[in-house]
Design brief:
It contains 15 helices and 18 strands. The protein has about 425 residues and is of the alpha/beta class. The protein binds adenosine-5'-diphosphate.
Length: about 425
């Protein structure tokens, strides 16, 4: 891999799953995209890419910390040539009056000298629309949606102009649907008017998918925007339609085969995963770990590694801790929920680490927390996003990993079709 040419779009995501969702959206829109875990080292070598999504965990931390981490991410992205940075937030605008959307936006705006920042969490295809500055989740306003009872960020006001004004030091106004519907020129004129009045950010309405395209065309001419994957899609389409990025087809982007041994690990106990494991039994050897033995000593890890070693040279294997809801409840009653979850996640990470050391280069992991534990353990700084195995689950090529070239698939519980493990192996060569 060579040090990359300039990237066209930089993104800072305030949580990991949101980052993956955005990276996947950008890839589907034709941008070669890397997702990094945290702010990368200055010398991280990237393949040729159009976009980088830096994943932070800054949605619900103290505002000052969110600001400093986001600024570091912004600096890194600008250093790699990103002329536009998208601060990626949740499509339900998860935040409190203390932040973190407003404080982070203010800091990034000051750093890049943007006049008016366009802000919208709208993504009509997923039911998030904004009208007259009010966010709707499906058919209901945000403050009537389940988000009103969110444990960390309860949302009691659907008017985002007001919500953002309470968090930001700058004045907030609106670009309404009537203006947007008149086209990009009308939006530019409205932003010039707002800028003249000293307004620092504007919520922009979007009700139909085509609205995102107009927003993208205008936003890409600016230095900074704030929004969810919807505005990411708009920006990606604008970069492609204006010729700033030559759309990469997924097939040409798959890269060289990695080869090496392949293994699947399942820590998810979701209904979908249990079915996928049952189906995998027909096509590969499956080892069911004994969760009680995991909780009482390290011998289960060694048993799994010995079992895998005997079989990996003949083909892929699957190692699962997954159990039915009744068995999960019983284990949790014996050991405590957190202790059981943690111990099993760390065992999965131990197994993954040893498998990679012994030559596994293609790794498929079922379970969100399980995937996080494994990726942390393998110290993988980032991923190039590839073809989609199932909705929301792409093939990931490790970037800058100590183990060298590697492919991963990280699936959260309910994702993927009944033959997910075979589907993934089919695309991971
Ligand atoms: P999902 O994406 O389905 O939520 P996660 O990996 O995020 O999957 O969460 C599953 C959790 O259940 C993890 O903490 C994992 O360690 C734990 N776990 C896995 N197997 C068992 C089991 N047999 N009994 C209890 N907990 C388990």
């Amino acid at each position: 891999m060579t040090l990359a040419a300039k990237i066209s779009l930089g993104c800072i995501a305030d949580d990991y799953t949101g980052a993956s969702d955005l990276a996947n959206t950008l890839t589907r829109a034709g941008l070669r995209t890397v997702q990094t875990i945290g702010v990368p080292a200055d010398d991280l070598k990237l393949p040729e890419v159009d976009a980088v999504v830096v994943s932070l965990k800054s949605r619900s931390i103290e505002a000052g910390l969110a600001v400093s981490r986001s600024r570091a991410a912004g600096k890194w992205l600008r250093g790699r040539g990103a002329s536009h940075v998208l601060f990626k937030i949740c499509s339900t605008f998860d935040s409190t009056d203390a932040g973190n959307i407003g404080p982070v936006m203010d800091a990034l705006r000051a750093d890049c000298g943007e006049a008016v920042v366009l802000v919208t969490p709208a993504f009509p295809e997923t039911g998030r629309t904004v009208y007259q500055g009010n966010l709707f989740v499906g058919a209901v306003p945000l403050n009537e949606s389940p988000l009103k009872d969110h444990p960390l960020n309860p949302m009691h006001d659907s008017n985002l102009v007001r919500v953002l004004a309470r968090q930001s030091k700058t004045q907030i106004d609106l670009v309404d649907l009537a203006t947007l519907t008149r086209g990009a020129e009308a939006v530019r004129a409205r932003l010039a008017e707002l800028s003249g009045k000293g307004i620092g950010a504007a919520i922009i309405d979007a009700v139909f998918d085509r609205d995102l395209e107009t927003i993208g065309l205008v936003a890409v001419e600016h230095r900074l925007s704030v929004g969810a994957s919807g505005i990411g899609l708009g920006l990606a389409r604008a970069l492609v339609s204006t010729g700033k990025v030559k759309s990469a087809t997924t097939s040409s982007d798959r890269g060289a085969a990695v080869g090496g041994q392949a293994a699947c690990l399942a820590g998810s106990c979701s209904q979908a995963t249990l079915q996928q494991i049952a189906n995998a039994e027909r096509v590969m050897p499956v080892l069911h770990l004994d969760p009680d033995r995991i909780l009482t000593g390290p011998s289960e890890t060694q048993r799994a590694l010995d079992w895998a070693k005997e079989r990996l040279s003949q083909g892929p294997v699957l190692i699962a801790s997954s159990a039915t809801p009744a068995d999960v409840a019983a284990l949790q009653a014996r050991h405590g929920r957190d202790a059981a979850g943690q111990a099993i996640e760390q065992t999965m990470a131990d197994i993954a680490e040893s498998l990679v050391k012994s030559g596994v280069r293609r790794l498929i992991i079922a379970g969100g927390e399980t995937s996080g534990a494994v990726v942390d353990r393998l110290r993988i700084p980032g991923f190039l996003v590839g073809a989609e195995i199932a909705a929301g689950v792409p093939v990931l090529r490790a970037v800058g990993a100590e183990a060298g070239d590697m492919l991963l698939a990280l699936k959260s519980g309910n994702f993927g079709g009944p033959e997910f493990f075979s589907d993934a192996l089919g695309l991971m060569r």
